[in-house]
Here is the input.
Amino acid sequence: MRSLLAPLVGGLLLSLAVVFGVQWSIVQVAIDEVIHEYIAGELAQDADELFSGLSLDPARDASLALAHFDPHYLAPLSGRYYQIQLDRTTALRSPSLVRETLAMPTVGQGQRSVTQVVGPKGEALLLSATGYALQGRRVTIAVGGDLTPVRAQFDRLMARYTRVSLIMFALLVVLQVGIVRLALSPLRRVQADVGRLEEGAIDQLGERVPSEVLPLVREVNRLLALLALRLRRSREALGNLAHALKAPLTVLTQLADDDHVRRHPVLGPQIDEQLQILRARIDSELRRARVAGGRAGGAPLDLRPEIETLVETLRKLHRDRRLDIVCRIGPGVRFRGDREDLLELCGNLLDNACKWARSRVLVTVRQDDALQLTVEDDGPGCSPDDLGRIAQRGVRLDEATEGHGLGLAIASGIAASYGAELQFGRSQELGGFEVRLSFPAG
Here is the structure.
Protein backbone atom coordinates (compact mmCIF):
# COMPACT_ATOMS: atom_id res chain seq x y z
CA MET A 1 0.00 0.00 0.00
CA ARG A 2 1.36 3.40 -0.92
CA SER A 3 1.71 6.16 1.64
CA LEU A 4 -1.25 8.43 2.38
CA LEU A 5 1.08 11.46 2.30
CA ALA A 6 1.83 11.15 -1.44
CA PRO A 7 -1.77 11.39 -2.78
CA LEU A 8 -2.67 14.06 -0.23
CA VAL A 9 0.29 16.23 -1.18
CA GLY A 10 -0.30 15.53 -4.88
CA GLY A 11 -3.95 16.56 -4.60
CA LEU A 12 -2.92 19.63 -2.64
CA LEU A 13 -0.40 20.70 -5.30
CA LEU A 14 -2.94 20.20 -8.07
CA SER A 15 -5.66 22.14 -6.20
CA LEU A 16 -3.36 25.05 -5.38
CA ALA A 17 -2.06 25.16 -8.96
CA VAL A 18 -5.62 25.32 -10.32
CA VAL A 19 -6.65 28.00 -7.78
CA PHE A 20 -3.59 30.16 -8.46
CA GLY A 21 -3.96 29.69 -12.23
CA VAL A 22 -7.60 30.78 -12.19
CA GLN A 23 -6.78 33.67 -9.86
CA TRP A 24 -3.91 34.83 -12.09
CA SER A 25 -6.18 34.77 -15.17
CA ILE A 26 -8.95 36.69 -13.40
CA VAL A 27 -6.53 39.34 -12.10
CA GLN A 28 -4.97 39.76 -15.55
CA VAL A 29 -8.34 40.21 -17.24
CA ALA A 30 -9.62 42.53 -14.50
CA ILE A 31 -6.56 44.81 -14.56
CA ASP A 32 -6.63 44.91 -18.36
CA GLU A 33 -10.29 45.99 -18.29
CA VAL A 34 -9.57 48.64 -15.65
CA ILE A 35 -6.72 50.06 -17.75
CA HIS A 36 -8.90 50.15 -20.87
CA GLU A 37 -11.73 51.86 -19.01
CA TYR A 38 -9.36 54.40 -17.48
CA ILE A 39 -7.72 55.28 -20.80
CA ALA A 40 -11.10 55.32 -22.54
CA GLY A 41 -12.37 57.77 -19.90
CA GLU A 42 -9.40 60.09 -20.50
CA LEU A 43 -9.95 59.89 -24.26
CA ALA A 44 -13.67 60.69 -23.86
CA GLN A 45 -12.76 63.66 -21.66
CA ASP A 46 -10.38 64.94 -24.36
CA ALA A 47 -13.15 64.49 -26.93
CA ASP A 48 -15.53 66.63 -24.84
CA GLU A 49 -12.85 69.27 -24.43
CA LEU A 50 -12.23 69.30 -28.19
CA PHE A 51 -15.94 69.67 -28.84
CA SER A 52 -16.14 72.58 -26.41
CA GLY A 53 -13.49 74.43 -28.45
CA LEU A 54 -15.00 73.53 -31.81
CA SER A 55 -16.73 76.28 -33.83
CA LEU A 56 -18.02 76.79 -37.34
CA ASP A 57 -17.18 79.97 -39.31
CA PRO A 58 -19.65 81.66 -41.72
CA ALA A 59 -18.43 79.35 -44.46
CA ARG A 60 -19.38 76.51 -42.10
CA ASP A 61 -15.80 75.31 -41.83
CA ALA A 62 -14.69 73.86 -38.51
CA SER A 63 -12.03 75.45 -36.32
CA LEU A 64 -10.65 74.85 -32.81
CA ALA A 65 -10.13 77.53 -30.24
CA LEU A 66 -8.51 76.03 -27.12
CA ALA A 67 -6.65 77.93 -24.41
CA HIS A 68 -4.71 74.84 -23.28
CA PHE A 69 -3.74 72.12 -25.68
CA ASP A 70 -2.13 68.79 -24.76
CA PRO A 71 1.38 68.88 -26.28
CA HIS A 72 1.14 65.16 -27.13
CA TYR A 73 -1.32 66.04 -29.89
CA LEU A 74 1.26 68.41 -31.44
CA ALA A 75 4.31 66.09 -31.59
CA PRO A 76 4.44 64.00 -34.78
CA LEU A 77 3.45 60.34 -34.29
CA SER A 78 3.47 60.83 -30.53
CA GLY A 79 0.90 58.10 -29.90
CA ARG A 80 -1.86 60.54 -29.01
CA TYR A 81 -4.18 61.58 -31.88
CA TYR A 82 -7.56 63.14 -32.61
CA GLN A 83 -9.63 63.45 -35.73
CA ILE A 84 -12.84 65.48 -36.19
CA GLN A 85 -15.35 64.59 -38.83
CA LEU A 86 -18.24 66.81 -39.98
CA ASP A 87 -21.02 64.70 -41.35
CA ARG A 88 -18.93 62.18 -43.28
CA THR A 89 -16.01 64.47 -44.14
CA THR A 90 -12.80 64.77 -42.15
CA ALA A 91 -12.54 68.35 -41.04
CA LEU A 92 -9.66 68.48 -38.57
CA ARG A 93 -6.78 66.23 -37.55
CA SER A 94 -4.19 66.55 -34.84
CA PRO A 95 -0.70 67.59 -35.92
CA SER A 96 0.56 64.33 -34.42
CA LEU A 97 -1.12 62.39 -37.23
CA VAL A 98 1.06 64.15 -39.83
CA ARG A 99 -0.53 62.85 -43.03
CA GLU A 100 -2.15 59.75 -41.63
CA THR A 101 -5.89 59.24 -41.24
CA LEU A 102 -7.73 57.23 -38.62
CA ALA A 103 -10.45 54.79 -39.66
CA MET A 104 -13.43 56.18 -37.77
CA PRO A 105 -16.53 54.16 -36.91
CA THR A 106 -20.03 55.51 -37.50
CA VAL A 107 -21.43 56.86 -34.24
CA GLY A 108 -24.80 58.51 -33.65
CA GLN A 109 -25.35 61.66 -31.63
CA GLY A 110 -24.80 61.08 -27.92
CA GLN A 111 -23.22 57.68 -28.56
CA ARG A 112 -19.68 56.54 -27.90
CA SER A 113 -17.67 53.68 -29.37
CA VAL A 114 -14.36 52.34 -27.95
CA THR A 115 -12.35 50.05 -30.20
CA GLN A 116 -8.78 48.91 -30.55
CA VAL A 117 -7.19 49.64 -33.93
CA VAL A 118 -3.74 49.78 -35.51
CA GLY A 119 -2.12 53.23 -35.22
CA PRO A 120 0.00 55.12 -37.72
CA LYS A 121 3.19 53.46 -36.43
CA GLY A 122 1.60 50.03 -36.28
CA GLU A 123 1.05 50.38 -32.54
CA ALA A 124 -1.98 49.13 -30.65
CA LEU A 125 -4.27 52.16 -30.47
CA LEU A 126 -7.33 52.53 -28.26
CA LEU A 127 -9.79 54.69 -30.21
CA SER A 128 -12.73 56.45 -28.54
CA ALA A 129 -15.27 57.93 -31.02
CA THR A 130 -18.10 60.16 -29.71
CA GLY A 131 -21.06 61.57 -31.68
CA TYR A 132 -22.15 65.21 -31.29
CA ALA A 133 -24.37 67.78 -33.09
CA LEU A 134 -23.26 71.34 -33.82
CA GLN A 135 -25.45 73.92 -35.61
CA GLY A 136 -27.47 71.17 -37.23
CA ARG A 137 -24.47 69.24 -38.44
CA ARG A 138 -23.34 65.80 -37.19
CA VAL A 139 -19.93 65.87 -35.58
CA THR A 140 -17.82 62.81 -34.78
CA ILE A 141 -14.70 63.27 -32.69
CA ALA A 142 -12.28 60.33 -32.44
CA VAL A 143 -9.42 60.40 -29.93
CA GLY A 144 -6.78 57.67 -29.87
CA GLY A 145 -4.11 56.72 -27.37
CA ASP A 146 -1.15 54.32 -27.75
CA LEU A 147 -1.50 51.30 -25.43
CA THR A 148 2.14 50.19 -25.75
CA PRO A 149 3.59 52.15 -22.76
CA VAL A 150 0.65 51.19 -20.59
CA ARG A 151 0.94 47.53 -21.63
CA ALA A 152 4.64 47.57 -20.78
CA GLN A 153 3.85 48.81 -17.27
CA PHE A 154 1.05 46.25 -17.07
CA ASP A 155 3.43 43.44 -18.05
CA ARG A 156 5.91 44.53 -15.37
CA LEU A 157 3.10 44.58 -12.83
CA MET A 158 1.97 41.07 -13.83
CA ALA A 159 5.56 39.81 -13.68
CA ARG A 160 5.88 41.07 -10.09
CA TYR A 161 2.48 39.62 -9.25
CA THR A 162 3.50 36.27 -10.75
CA ARG A 163 6.69 36.16 -8.66
CA VAL A 164 4.77 37.00 -5.49
CA SER A 165 2.15 34.37 -6.37
CA LEU A 166 4.81 31.69 -6.89
CA ILE A 167 6.42 32.54 -3.54
CA MET A 168 3.01 32.37 -1.84
CA PHE A 169 2.31 29.10 -3.65
CA ALA A 170 5.56 27.59 -2.34
CA LEU A 171 4.90 28.84 1.20
CA LEU A 172 1.36 27.44 1.13
CA VAL A 173 2.63 24.07 -0.12
CA VAL A 174 5.22 23.88 2.68
CA LEU A 175 2.61 24.96 5.23
CA GLN A 176 0.01 22.49 4.02
CA VAL A 177 2.51 19.61 3.87
CA GLY A 178 3.40 20.39 7.47
CA ILE A 179 -0.29 20.40 8.40
CA VAL A 180 -0.84 17.06 6.61
CA ARG A 181 2.19 15.54 8.34
CA LEU A 182 0.89 16.78 11.68
CA ALA A 183 -2.54 15.33 10.93
CA LEU A 184 -0.97 11.96 10.04
CA SER A 185 1.32 11.86 13.08
CA PRO A 186 -1.11 9.60 15.03
CA LEU A 187 -0.76 7.06 12.21
CA ARG A 188 3.01 7.14 12.67
CA ARG A 189 2.40 6.24 16.31
CA VAL A 190 0.41 3.24 15.12
CA GLN A 191 3.28 2.32 12.80
CA ALA A 192 5.73 2.59 15.70
CA ASP A 193 3.43 0.47 17.88
CA VAL A 194 3.32 -2.20 15.16
CA GLY A 195 7.13 -2.26 15.14
CA ARG A 196 7.20 -2.58 18.94
CA LEU A 197 4.58 -5.31 18.68
CA GLU A 198 6.81 -7.22 16.26
CA GLU A 199 9.74 -6.83 18.63
CA GLY A 200 7.65 -8.14 21.51
CA ALA A 201 7.92 -4.93 23.55
CA ILE A 202 4.10 -4.64 23.75
CA ASP A 203 1.21 -7.05 23.25
CA GLN A 204 -1.47 -4.51 22.22
CA LEU A 205 -1.60 -1.46 19.94
CA GLY A 206 -2.15 1.95 21.53
CA GLU A 207 -5.60 3.46 21.01
CA ARG A 208 -4.56 7.14 20.91
CA VAL A 209 -5.39 7.30 17.20
CA PRO A 210 -7.88 9.26 15.03
CA SER A 211 -11.49 8.13 15.26
CA GLU A 212 -11.37 6.93 11.65
CA VAL A 213 -8.62 4.42 12.50
CA LEU A 214 -9.73 3.53 16.04
CA PRO A 215 -12.16 0.72 14.98
CA LEU A 216 -9.37 -0.97 13.00
CA VAL A 217 -6.90 -0.71 15.91
CA ARG A 218 -9.49 -2.08 18.34
CA GLU A 219 -10.24 -4.98 16.01
CA VAL A 220 -6.52 -5.81 15.72
CA ASN A 221 -6.20 -5.69 19.52
CA ARG A 222 -9.23 -7.93 19.85
CA LEU A 223 -7.75 -10.48 17.44
CA LEU A 224 -4.40 -10.39 19.27
CA ALA A 225 -6.12 -11.03 22.60
CA LEU A 226 -8.25 -13.78 21.04
CA LEU A 227 -5.20 -15.54 19.58
CA ALA A 228 -3.36 -15.40 22.90
CA LEU A 229 -6.44 -16.72 24.70
CA ARG A 230 -6.91 -19.56 22.20
CA LEU A 231 -3.26 -20.56 22.48
CA ARG A 232 -3.45 -20.59 26.28
CA ARG A 233 -6.70 -22.58 26.26
CA SER A 234 -5.28 -25.02 23.72
CA ARG A 235 -2.24 -25.67 25.88
CA GLU A 236 -4.37 -26.02 29.00
CA ALA A 237 -6.74 -28.40 27.21
CA LEU A 238 -3.82 -30.49 25.97
CA GLY A 239 -2.38 -30.62 29.47
CA ASN A 240 -5.75 -31.75 30.80
CA LEU A 241 -5.99 -34.35 28.03
CA ALA A 242 -2.54 -35.67 28.79
CA HIS A 243 -3.43 -35.90 32.48
CA ALA A 244 -6.72 -37.66 31.66
CA LEU A 245 -5.00 -40.22 29.39
CA LYS A 246 -2.25 -40.89 31.88
CA ALA A 247 -4.42 -43.04 34.19
CA PRO A 248 -5.89 -45.30 31.43
CA LEU A 249 -2.40 -45.78 29.96
CA THR A 250 -1.12 -46.79 33.40
CA VAL A 251 -3.93 -49.34 33.77
CA LEU A 252 -3.24 -50.74 30.29
CA THR A 253 0.46 -50.95 31.11
CA GLN A 254 -0.30 -52.84 34.29
CA LEU A 255 -2.59 -55.21 32.38
CA ALA A 256 0.14 -55.74 29.83
CA ASP A 257 2.51 -56.67 32.67
CA ASP A 258 0.11 -59.34 33.89
CA ASP A 259 1.63 -62.84 33.66
CA HIS A 260 -1.36 -64.26 31.84
CA VAL A 261 -1.10 -61.61 29.15
CA ARG A 262 2.69 -61.87 28.84
CA ARG A 263 2.52 -65.67 28.48
CA HIS A 264 0.18 -65.30 25.54
CA PRO A 265 2.31 -65.70 22.38
CA VAL A 266 0.43 -63.09 20.33
CA LEU A 267 -1.53 -60.84 22.66
CA GLY A 268 1.36 -59.73 24.88
CA PRO A 269 3.68 -58.41 22.14
CA GLN A 270 0.76 -56.74 20.35
CA ILE A 271 -0.37 -54.90 23.49
CA ASP A 272 3.19 -53.73 24.19
CA GLU A 273 3.62 -52.53 20.63
CA GLN A 274 0.32 -50.65 20.60
CA LEU A 275 1.04 -49.04 23.98
CA GLN A 276 4.42 -47.79 22.71
CA ILE A 277 2.82 -46.43 19.56
CA LEU A 278 0.07 -44.75 21.61
CA ARG A 279 2.56 -43.11 23.99
CA ALA A 280 4.77 -41.90 21.13
CA ARG A 281 1.77 -40.56 19.24
CA ILE A 282 0.37 -38.68 22.26
CA ASP A 283 3.79 -37.21 23.09
CA SER A 284 4.30 -36.16 19.49
CA GLU A 285 0.91 -34.49 19.14
CA LEU A 286 1.22 -32.76 22.49
CA ARG A 287 4.57 -31.32 21.50
CA ARG A 288 3.22 -30.24 18.11
CA ALA A 289 0.19 -28.56 19.65
CA ARG A 290 2.34 -26.61 22.08
CA VAL A 291 3.95 -24.80 19.14
CA ALA A 292 2.78 -21.17 19.02
CA GLY A 293 4.48 -20.41 15.71
CA GLY A 294 5.56 -17.02 14.40
CA ARG A 295 6.28 -13.99 16.56
CA ALA A 296 4.88 -14.10 20.07
CA GLY A 297 4.28 -11.29 22.53
CA GLY A 298 6.88 -10.38 25.10
CA ALA A 299 10.45 -9.20 24.98
CA PRO A 300 12.98 -11.02 22.76
CA LEU A 301 14.58 -14.02 24.49
CA ASP A 302 18.28 -14.11 25.26
CA LEU A 303 19.43 -17.43 23.75
CA ARG A 304 22.55 -17.96 25.83
CA PRO A 305 20.92 -18.78 29.21
CA GLU A 306 18.13 -20.80 27.58
CA ILE A 307 20.46 -23.03 25.57
CA GLU A 308 22.97 -23.35 28.41
CA THR A 309 20.14 -24.55 30.67
CA LEU A 310 19.15 -27.15 28.07
CA VAL A 311 22.75 -28.28 27.71
CA GLU A 312 23.13 -28.64 31.47
CA THR A 313 19.98 -30.79 31.60
CA LEU A 314 21.26 -33.02 28.79
CA ARG A 315 24.62 -33.44 30.53
CA LYS A 316 22.79 -34.79 33.56
CA LEU A 317 20.64 -37.11 31.43
CA HIS A 318 23.74 -38.51 29.68
CA ARG A 319 26.17 -38.28 32.59
CA ASP A 320 27.04 -41.98 32.30
CA ARG A 321 28.40 -41.30 28.77
CA ARG A 322 30.32 -38.15 29.82
CA LEU A 323 29.48 -36.20 26.71
CA ASP A 324 31.44 -33.04 25.94
CA ILE A 325 28.76 -30.53 24.92
CA VAL A 326 30.29 -27.24 23.75
CA CYS A 327 28.29 -24.02 23.21
CA ARG A 328 29.48 -21.25 20.91
CA ILE A 329 26.94 -18.46 21.25
CA GLY A 330 27.65 -14.93 20.13
CA PRO A 331 26.91 -11.99 22.42
CA GLY A 332 23.46 -10.40 22.35
CA VAL A 333 21.84 -13.18 20.33
CA ARG A 334 18.08 -12.94 20.79
CA PHE A 335 15.08 -14.92 19.58
CA ARG A 336 11.81 -13.15 18.74
CA GLY A 337 9.28 -15.84 19.35
CA ASP A 338 7.62 -18.12 21.87
CA ARG A 339 9.86 -19.53 24.62
CA GLU A 340 8.11 -22.90 24.57
CA ASP A 341 8.74 -23.17 20.83
CA LEU A 342 12.42 -22.36 21.35
CA LEU A 343 12.84 -24.97 24.09
CA GLU A 344 10.98 -27.62 22.07
CA LEU A 345 12.98 -26.90 18.92
CA CYS A 346 16.44 -26.76 20.50
CA GLY A 347 15.60 -29.60 22.88
CA ASN A 348 14.76 -31.96 20.02
CA LEU A 349 17.86 -31.07 18.03
CA LEU A 350 20.20 -31.34 21.04
CA ASP A 351 18.62 -34.54 22.30
CA ASN A 352 18.96 -36.10 18.86
CA ALA A 353 22.64 -35.11 18.72
CA CYS A 354 23.35 -36.42 22.24
CA LYS A 355 21.69 -39.72 21.45
CA TRP A 356 23.96 -40.43 18.50
CA ALA A 357 27.16 -38.67 19.56
CA ARG A 358 30.15 -40.74 20.61
CA SER A 359 31.69 -38.12 22.88
CA ARG A 360 31.21 -34.58 21.53
CA VAL A 361 28.34 -32.27 20.62
CA LEU A 362 28.84 -28.74 19.30
CA VAL A 363 26.19 -26.02 19.36
CA THR A 364 26.91 -22.82 17.40
CA VAL A 365 24.60 -19.79 17.37
CA ARG A 366 25.30 -16.55 15.53
CA GLN A 367 23.21 -13.61 14.46
CA ASP A 368 23.98 -11.23 11.63
CA ASP A 369 20.95 -10.14 9.66
CA ALA A 370 19.37 -13.52 10.42
CA LEU A 371 19.58 -15.97 13.32
CA GLN A 372 21.49 -19.20 12.55
CA LEU A 373 21.82 -22.25 14.82
CA THR A 374 23.99 -25.31 14.07
CA VAL A 375 24.05 -28.58 16.05
CA GLU A 376 26.82 -31.11 15.24
CA ASP A 377 27.90 -34.43 16.73
CA ASP A 378 30.73 -36.92 16.21
CA GLY A 379 28.41 -39.88 15.71
CA PRO A 380 28.04 -42.12 12.65
CA GLY A 381 26.15 -39.51 10.69
CA CYS A 382 23.70 -40.19 7.86
CA SER A 383 24.24 -41.83 4.53
CA PRO A 384 23.67 -39.73 1.40
CA ASP A 385 20.45 -41.66 0.70
CA ASP A 386 19.11 -40.88 4.18
CA LEU A 387 20.10 -37.22 3.81
CA GLY A 388 18.12 -37.10 0.57
CA ARG A 389 15.07 -38.55 2.33
CA ILE A 390 15.42 -36.10 5.19
CA ALA A 391 15.48 -33.20 2.74
CA GLN A 392 12.21 -34.32 1.13
CA ARG A 393 9.20 -32.25 2.16
CA GLY A 394 6.55 -34.09 4.17
CA VAL A 395 8.59 -37.12 5.27
CA ARG A 396 7.68 -38.14 8.83
CA LEU A 397 11.09 -39.17 10.08
CA ASP A 398 9.88 -40.22 13.51
CA GLU A 399 7.62 -42.75 11.82
CA ALA A 400 10.25 -44.08 9.43
CA THR A 401 13.31 -45.70 10.97
CA GLU A 402 15.10 -45.10 14.21
CA GLY A 403 18.14 -42.92 14.24
CA HIS A 404 18.31 -39.29 13.27
CA GLY A 405 14.58 -39.19 12.61
CA LEU A 406 13.64 -38.92 16.27
CA GLY A 407 12.25 -35.46 16.99
CA LEU A 408 13.30 -33.98 13.65
CA ALA A 409 9.75 -33.95 12.28
CA ILE A 410 8.60 -31.85 15.25
CA ALA A 411 11.62 -29.57 14.84
CA SER A 412 10.80 -29.21 11.14
CA GLY A 413 7.22 -28.24 11.96
CA ILE A 414 8.30 -25.60 14.47
CA ALA A 415 10.89 -24.21 12.04
CA ALA A 416 8.28 -24.05 9.25
CA SER A 417 5.88 -22.11 11.51
CA TYR A 418 8.56 -19.39 11.82
CA GLY A 419 9.51 -19.45 8.14
CA ALA A 420 12.89 -20.93 9.09
CA GLU A 421 14.85 -23.46 7.03
CA LEU A 422 16.31 -26.75 8.27
CA GLN A 423 19.24 -28.28 6.40
CA PHE A 424 20.86 -31.63 7.16
CA GLY A 425 24.37 -32.74 6.29
CA ARG A 426 27.67 -34.03 7.62
CA SER A 427 29.71 -32.03 10.12
CA GLN A 428 33.01 -30.74 8.74
CA GLU A 429 34.47 -30.33 12.23
CA LEU A 430 33.22 -33.44 14.06
CA GLY A 431 32.45 -35.77 11.16
CA GLY A 432 28.98 -36.76 12.32
CA PHE A 433 25.47 -35.47 11.69
CA GLU A 434 24.87 -31.74 11.30
CA VAL A 435 21.64 -29.73 11.47
CA ARG A 436 21.65 -26.10 10.28
CA LEU A 437 18.68 -23.93 11.25
CA SER A 438 18.31 -20.50 9.59
CA PHE A 439 15.61 -18.03 10.63
CA PRO A 440 14.63 -15.27 8.19
CA ALA A 441 15.96 -11.77 8.83
CA GLY A 442 13.83 -9.75 11.22
